[in-house]
Amino acid sequence: MTSKKNEELENDNNAQEKANSQKEDIRPVCGLIMPIADTDGYPTGHWKEVKKIITSVAEEAGFRTRLVSESEDVRVIQKTIVQNVFDDDIVICDVSSKNPNVMFELGLRFAFDKAAVIIKDDETGYSFDTSPVEHINYRKDLRFSSIEQFKKDLSLKLLATFEKSKDANHSMYLQDFGKFVVKELDTKTVSENQYILEKLNEMQREIRNISNANVADAKREIYESPKQIKELVKLLYNEFKNDGAISSKTGLANLISDTMENAHSILISPKTIIRYIEQFNLEELN
Fold first, then answer.
1. Where are the stretches annotated Disordered (predicted)?
2. Which H/E stretch holds residue 41?
3. How many CB atoms within 10 Å of residue 120?
4. Where does the pLDDT of residue 185 fall: very low under 50, low under 70, confident under 90, or very high at 90 and above?
5. Measured between alpha carbons, how far is residue 188 from residues 69, 78, 80 in Å?
6. Mean pLDDT across the chain
7. Helix, strand, or coil here: 12?
8. Under 8 Å CB-to-CB from 222, ≥6 apart: which residues?
9. Where do the DSSP E strands lie in the chain?
10. How many whole angstroms separate alpha carbon 19 and alpha carbon 22?
């Protein structure tokens, strides 16, 4: 009898835990835009420590926090980032080290004219385009006493910015440059089968892109040395010259330069190609 009661009690507890785990998290979302990989000039694991600090502040302030690159389903990461940058109720952006991806994602957020809090370490300078927006600084060495004050400042700024964003007329950035209408991102409802097919198609496209990139890399490897590049220029020169479509030396050089960049991912100036052409002509005379 006791065993049966214990079993029933355990089943009730499991059911309650399952129900609790399935409850929707209704807290506002705070997206994180920040460097992730280790960066020159910063100790290994630095950004993990910074993320812990930011996350603790946002969670204590009542936000559900995650990187804008995170998604609950499997999606192309670029789509995930753009969608989250648009959807998140507020973002905290760390522009320390001026990481290009971070600056691009912050630019998207500004273009959407939505709430953002910018932070940076004390050794990173201000960028011209974002300097009018207040930045909250923290010590790069993450010294405890200064970080405690930073956490207080960040919490106050986060909550104040979020409250202001609820105002229908709130503008994060664009109001300083005139009146703009921010286009909403299109959304659509699809069946489960359609969704799966769409994801499979996306995966196929990604695989093709990777394959094409590998082919391009292989082409780059073929023409690594200056001698090999010069031989390629000579090959293209003879091909285009015999074709007769372009007769001028400058026109041929421009065409060869464009072909090498687009077809072989090799950057070479028309001026250098003209010098090669003159050498080829001398070799023919000799």
1. 1-23
2. none
3. 21
4. low
5. 21, 18, 15
6. 79
7. helix
8. 228
9. 29-33, 64-67, 90-94, 116-121, 135-138
10. 5
The span from the CA of 172 to the CA of 165, in Å, is 8
Nearest-angstrom CA–CA distance, 162 and 160: 5
Place of tokens 């956490």: 151
Question: What is the distance between the alpha carbons of residues 273 and 259, in angstroms, rounded to a whole number?
Answer: 12
Structure tokens at 270: 């028309």
What is the token pair recorded at 187?
């959304």
The answer to whether the Cα torsion of 176, 178, 179, 183 is positive or negative is negative
pLDDT of residue 220: 47
Distance CA 164, CA 95 (A): 22
Tokens of 215: 């082919």
**Token reading at 235:** 């090959």
The pTM for the full model equals: 0.56
Indicate the residue type of 211: S
For 25-185, the fitting CATH number among 3.40.50.1820, 3.40.50.450, 3.40.50.1100, 3.90.1170.50 is 3.40.50.450
CA–chain centroid gap for 239, Å, is: 41
